[in-house]
Amino acid sequence: MVLTGNDVFVHDRSADFSVGPYTFEIGGPNKKKKQIRSEKQTFVVKDEWGLSADPSVVPLWVFGMLGPS
Predict the structure, then answer these.
(1) Which residues, in sequence order, are bridge partners of residue 7?
(2) What are the structural domain ranges in the chain?
(3) Angle in degrees, CA 9, 25, 37, rounded to 5
């Protein structure tokens, strides 16, 4: 999927931002999905090192691995 600037939306209440069909909430190690519970295809991006057993919780450092090599 190729994304353009038109695919990124910043939210004011329910989440931090969306990219295409995916919604992201960014927070610290104690961040929960409470704020985005009603949304579909959501991810909590936590500022922590460990991986979670929950596939919808992603450590922030993983996004650094997604850039061009």
Answers:
(1) none
(2) 5-66
(3) 105
What is the arithmetic mean of pLDDT over 28-43?
Answer: 79
Q: What is the pTM of this model?
A: 0.71
Measured CA distances, 23 to 68, 69 (Å): 22, 25
Q: Are strands 8-10 and 57-59 parallel, antiparallel or unpaired?
A: unpaired
Query: Whose CA is closest to 22, among 59, 56, 63?
Result: 56
pLDDT grade for 40, boundaries at 50, 70 and 90: confident
User: Cα separation of 16 and 67, whole Å?
Assistant: 20
In whole angstroms, give the CA distance from residue 3 to residue 54.
Answer: 26
For residue 9, list its beta bridge partners. 18
As a whole number of angstroms, the distance between CA 2 and CA 32 comes to 29
Q: Could you tell me the pLDDT band of residue 20, with boundaries at 50, 70 and 90? A: confident
